[in-house]
Amino acid sequence: MGLKEEFEEHAEKVKTLPKAPSNDDMLILYGHYKQATVGPVNTSRPGMLDLRGKAKWDAWKAVEGKSQEEAMGDYITKVKQLLEAAGMAA
């Protein structure tokens, strides 16, 4: 299985967690997912009142220097950690 296929598989697996990941974990996943699928940030930072949008944008910006392949690998690793913590097979 190639990296892209494994990435897509784990993007689906994360949806099967018995409870939603913490906000911090969700932001880590979001930043790596966007870097892996879109590449570097290509939008301006949301406004001051959009706290959720700013947090998501900041999470994406934080991984901006990673290649799309690195971001996929880190995303897969994080999903595996969350699955293991939930007692589910990665």
From TrEMBL:
Native source species: Hibiscus syriacus
Entry's Gene Ontology molecular function annotations: fatty-acyl-CoA binding
GO biological process, one term: fatty acid metabolic process
Keywords of the record: Lipid-binding
InterPro entries assigned to the protein according to its UniProt record, in alphabetical order: Acyl-CoA-binding_prot_CS (IPR022408), Acyl-CoA-binding_protein (IPR000582), Acyl-CoA-binding_sf (IPR035984), FERM/acyl-CoA-bd_prot_sf (IPR014352)
Record's protein name: Acyl-CoA-binding protein
Pfam families recorded: ACBP
Keyword Kinase: no
Membrane-spanning ranges: none
Ranges for domain ACB: 3-88
Signal sequence bounds: none
Family stated for the protein in its record: Belongs to the ACBP family.
CDD domains for the chain: ACBP (cd00435)
